[in-house]
Amino acid sequence: MLADMLKRNKAVVGFDLGNDYSQISYCRAEQSMPETMSLVMGEEQYNIPTVLCRRHGADAAGAWSIGTEALKDVSDKKGILVEDLVLLAKNNVSVKMEEEDIAADALLAVFIKKTLAFLSIHVRTEDIEAVAFTMRDMNSQLMENVKKAAQQAGLKDKQLYFLSHEDCFFQYMIHQPEEMWIHDVLLYDYRSDGVKSYLLQMNRKTNPVACFIESELFPEMKQADVSQKPEAARNAFYRQLDAELLEIAREQCGKRNITSVFLLGDYFSREWCKESLRYLCRERRVFQGNNLFGKGACYGAREKVFASTLSTSYIYLSEDKLRANIGMSCDRGQEEIYFPILDAGTNWYDAKREFDVILTKNNAFTLNIAPVDGSKTRLAKISLEGLKVRGNKTNRVGLRFFMEDAQAVWIEITDKGFGEFFPSTGRIWKECLPLEVIS
Predict the structure, then answer these.
(1) Phi/psi zone of residue 57: left (φ > 0), alpha (ψ -120 to 50 degrees), beta?
(2) Is the pLDDT of residue 360 over 90?
(3) Helix, strand, coil proportions of the chain in percent (round to 5)?
(4) What is the CATH number of domain 2-162?
(5) d(CA 271, CA 80)
(6) Is 240 helix (H, G, I), strand (E, B) or coil?
(7) What confidence category does residue 2 fall into, taking pLDDT thresholds of 50, 70 and 90?
(8) Cβ 145 vs Cβ 108: under 8 Å
(9) Domain boundaries, the chain
């Protein structure tokens, strides 16, 4: 009974970390859908400006403010503004403030910690099981700095994951009623640099169902400040914007069967995109909001911690994903079993596994490589040159699987010996499986 109660209290968090603004969504283990934290009770004010203010002369506890409070402090000349936190972390650039160099991860740590303090009204930090961060454009440096920042912010003992916006879109959709994604689904994300489209397609002939997303950026849709322009100039600007969006929509929808369309971002408004909305609403369901990615990250985190049947029924494949299941057959007592190692659909930066095996017959083992596109399973034999196998189950080797990029899986094999009787030789072998061979 107590265990069930504790599980019900456990929660996962989706953290949409944007360079302009951020959002946090959360979901408990048995909650049907995530909720997004609003800065004002009863209202849908989800956006937290991703900025800091270093207050003048404040003690350590009150030295920093974030979000709208930070913008107000700067406006009141109470401190120094720090913006572009995600860009700083992506490029690993420190900021000099009052003769002090502050690293990008330390700045992000302040923002994450103070944002989580807002969340504690809804979810206690000790109840958080996992946090999934999502960012629009990720690289290894950014993920490393966000991970360091999250640990500094008090999430050291939590499971941390990284999901692309494509991953979040996929996770969000498969958790919606199926009539919303019987056919293709289109998403338009409107940010300060223009509109980015995401087209979700599914190959229902494969098992699991293989899902693909095509994305494209349209910088010609970049917004401009026309608030000070005459009314005629403003109307002309928005008519042109509407015409450009209509052209994009016709190009993307004309040759496809689109079930649903999602419009994300506060820039979308019925006041200006009249013709494009009229076109999109023909025989399609159109939804407008701005918290889909955070909710998708939340669904993704929940699938990692409390997996459902959706995890095995649908798989999202991208250029950053492993497109084959990798495993090996091994003996357990008198029976031979299949031992899974890396799962198809895993992001290359998450594709890691370590374990030990005992070699009993010879100095080689065989990997099973099963592409999810339905093509034939392949076998890859890995031989450990120079290792003498004694045949009495005293050859223990450690296997470490990892990926340094999206192109190949690396295997590092270490001779671990067998206690005092058969000490390790210290030998290490490395093998590389190029992805073009196994995908």
Answers:
(1) left
(2) no
(3) 30, 35, 35
(4) 3.30.420.40
(5) 37
(6) helix
(7) very low
(8) yes
(9) 2-162, 168-294, 324-438
All residues at 6 or more sequence positions from 135 whose CB lies less than 8 Å from its CB, including other chains: 16, 17, 18, 86, 142, 146, 162, 164, 165
Helix (H, G, I), strand (E, B) or coil at 251: helix
Q: What is the pLDDT of residue 74?
A: 95
Amino acid at site 375: S
Residues 6+ apart with CB under 8 A from 258: 183, 184, 185, 186, 252, 284
User: What average pLDDT does range 222-232 have in this prediction?
Assistant: 86
What is the C-alpha separation between 373 and 60, in angstroms, rounded?
55
- Cα–Cα distance measured from residue 412 to residue 324, given in angstroms and rounded to the nearest whole number: 19
Which residues on adjacent β-strands are paired with residue 209?
A: 314
Tell the CATH topology of 324-438.
Answer: Substrate Binding Domain Of DNAk; Chain A, domain 1 (2.60.34)
Q: How high is the mean pLDDT of the chain?
A: 90
Question: pTM of the prediction?
Answer: 0.86
Exposed, middle or buried by CB within 10 Å (0-12, 13-18, 19+), for 375?
exposed
- The amino acid that residue 130 corresponds to is A
Q: 2-162 and 168-294: same fold? A: yes
Per-residue b or e along 253-289, where b marks 16 or more CB atoms closer than 10 Å to that residue's CB: beeeebbbbbbbbebbeeebbeebbebbeeebeeeee
* CATH classification (class only), 168-294: alpha beta
**Closest CA relative to residue 121, chosen from 49, 24, 30, 187:** 24
Q: Using an 8 Å Cβ cutoff, are 36 and 18 in contact?
A: no
Q: What is the pLDDT of residue 61?
A: 65
The CB-side HSE value for 438 (13 A sphere, CA atoms) comes to 26
150/133 Cα distance (integer angstroms)? 10
